[in-house]
User: Fold this.
Amino acid sequence: MRRTRVVLTGATGFIGAAVLRRLARLRDEAGTAAPLSVHAVGRRLPTSTAALVDEWTPADLGEPGSLRGVCEGADVLLHLAASQSSDEQHGTAVNVQGTAALMREALRSGVGRIMHLSTAAVYGQGPHRGIGVDEVVPAPLSVPSRTRLAGEKHALAAGACVLRPGLVLGRGDRWVVPALAELVTAVPALWDGGRARVSMVAVEDLSRLIVHLATEFPLAGPRVWHASHPVPVTTRDLLAALTRHLGLPAVSAELAWDECRARLRASACELSERQFALVARDHWYDSEEIWRGTNCDPGPGPLTGVAEAVPWYRSLLALGPGDRG
Assistant:
């Protein structure tokens, strides 16, 4: 039986590494009858990851010429790599031009199934409450989200399914929980009463969805899907989980949003008001369709990502902000 050849970008990143682990587990459990082979494409392949891939091709999304031939013989392309840099030139080179070059390779090689990872941050400021895909016009506010939205167009032109998850929690997260810890230190209260609902997903659930779509339930493209857990998380529950699992100070006082903003500005916290609003005001997106329509269990909820990654988060929070990379 011919094995399904999966080409994966971003294998060393937060979400890509979780997908690689799941793909490798699926392959190894099947033994000699393995239904797939995993071909990683990227600038580097750490020793800890080398045993998980069947093949690795060195390439750089920032150098389109290096991508020539990377999709040869591929059945599935999982494009999970992205630049999070605030540098406009770098973000454009990787997220726009790199994606365009990779999609040209996918089309040239006749790849039948393409998935492209984007972000719900393309919608911008909010507040957003239960919107469907593009029910509000995307209005990204940062270089990463703006260039990732531009990259989506190239993926869709190649027939890809584009996934837009909200905030992702779990082992490998270097932004969400550390940012929450800084914010609750700067503004020790239930922000805007803790009522805000936020779209989130545990990285293990998101990786399970991606592998399910890659190997069991292909989706027809081009199309954009929201890919958070279908049930949003309230800020109150989120902060309570951080107290319970990570020992962050418990908060119970309720502060109105304007007072929260004033206290943030008066603090030494370097996070912006825009970043604060992402977790303190409504930012949730209707994500039920992709789980229900593909018969994929969304799991118990995003906060399990915190519970299952306690050692990771405790180690990360022990570092200063400048040491987290």
Q: What stands out?
A: The longest strand covers residues 36-42. The CA atoms of residues 242 and 317 lie 11 Å apart. Residues 88-109 form the longest helix (22 residues). The mean pLDDT is 93.
